[in-house]
Specification:
- By secondary structure, this protein is α/β, with parallel strands linked by helices.
- It has one domain.
- It has 4 helices and 3 strands.
- Strands 2-1-3 form a 3-stranded parallel β-sheet, with helices on one face.
- Helix 2 links the parallel strand 1 and strand 2.
- One of its GO terms (cellular component) is cytosol.
- Keywords: Gluconeogenesis, Glycolysis, Isomerase.
- It comes from Nasonia longicornis.
Length: 94
Amino acid sequence: LLGIWYHNFYKAETHALLPYDQYLHRFAAYFQQGDMESNGKYVTRSGDVVDYSTGPIVWGEPGTNGQHAFYQLIHQGTRLIPADFIAPAQSHNQ
């Protein structure tokens, strides 16, 4: 639902999911599968072409992996990139 909100109300074309726990390292990939593959189609189940934007581009890495790669773009770039930082309520790290 956040992707729909960001895309339709803020006109954002991407959505960053940034987990801050290494145990959630596949979190963004999981949502890529569900959102981009399932909701990224240009036709309905009945074969009609849609007249609205479909799912946004979902991407991300755990904070420890992506810090220098794309945080510069999010922080100082010229595009609006909604970023959701995900932190566990209870970490499994010891």
